[in-house]
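Lecture 7 notes: from sequence to structure.
We start with the chain below.
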Amino acid sequence: MYKIAAMGDRDSISGFASVGLELFTLDQMPDPSETLHNLASNQYAIILITEALAISLKDDIDRYKDRQLPVIVPIPGVSGDFNIGMKAISDAVERAVGSDILKDT
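Predicted structure tokens for the same chain:
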């Protein structure tokens, strides 16, 4: 059975514990890059990651962008919204349908 995880600072992801996600907080991870790769190879189908952390792990995340699993979803954190999540979704939709149908008109 597949699992879902959230990675990032404690304040940004602690609410996901109430819906059953496994949390991986920055204060628990000596090496976030290694944690991401471990999750990807251990039945985690969806990995939510704060945008601030996603910026620092961009090259690691890019290794998974053309794979079916895991789906790595950048989410805004308490430090603000960098619009990375929406950009990633827009890029995926454009690859899938051949046009950016989510673009503002």
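Points to note: The helical segments are 10-13, 32-40, 51-56, 58-62, 84-97. The domain at 3-97 is CATH 3.40.50.10580 (Rossmann fold).
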